[in-house]
Inverse folding.
């Protein structure tokens, strides 16, 4: 009986974690050099790279997923205010990733990044800065499309996503010059 009483509180702590929707969703980004650093091929052209978007793949999204949003954010840029490198919205629920340099599937669209361009803008931190963190995140949403006007900002996308995120998965890489 004592043994059971000891385990009972543990079950209440563990069970919600095991049962949470989307807890198993994972994201794999093939941008690294094997040591957690972004390869030069994916770096912004102005910083000596080819500015090619890396391959990204996700799996185990919740069954109720109707679309995905994919973002890449440098949390260290602008004195910690951050920098949006990539925001792709309205990826169909049937999508499980994007290939290297791939065009977007029908219905999906890129928002303007902080370089002022649509699509991928690779890492390009100031020379001499400590390595920056590039956080890739895929969000599973319970809506097929975000109600955003043409020219919407990443901040507007984040606002529109509120209350619609079923699960998310992240991968982080470093890059410095």
């Amino acid at each position: 009986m004592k043994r059971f009483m000891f385990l009972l509180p543990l079950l209440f702590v563990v069970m919600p974690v095991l049962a949470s929707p989307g807890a198993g969703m994972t994201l794999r980004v093939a941008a690294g050099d094997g040591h957690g650093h972004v390869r030069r091929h994916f770096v912004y052209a102005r910083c000596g790279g080819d500015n090619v978007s890396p391959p990204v793949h996700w799996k185990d999204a919740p069954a109720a997923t109707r679309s995905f949003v994919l973002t890449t954010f440098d949390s260290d840029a602008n004195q910690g205010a951050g920098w949006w490198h990539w925001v792709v919205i309205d990826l169909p629920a049937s999508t499980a990733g994007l290939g290297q340099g791939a065009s977007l599937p029908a219905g999906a669209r890129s928002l303007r990044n902080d370089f002022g361009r649509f699509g991928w803008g690779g890492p390009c931190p100031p020379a001499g800065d400590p390595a920056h963190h590039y956080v890739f995140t895929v969000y599973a949403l319970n809506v097929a499309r975000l109600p955003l006007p043409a020219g919407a900002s990443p901040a507007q996308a984040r606002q529109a996503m509120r209350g619609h995120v079923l699960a998310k998965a992240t991968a982080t890489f470093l890059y410095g010059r």
Notes: Strands lie at 26-29, 56-59, 67-74, 83-92, 97-98, 109-110, 132-141, 165-175. The chain has two helices and eight strands. Helices lie at 2-19, 154-161. Residues 2-19 form the longest helix (18 residues).
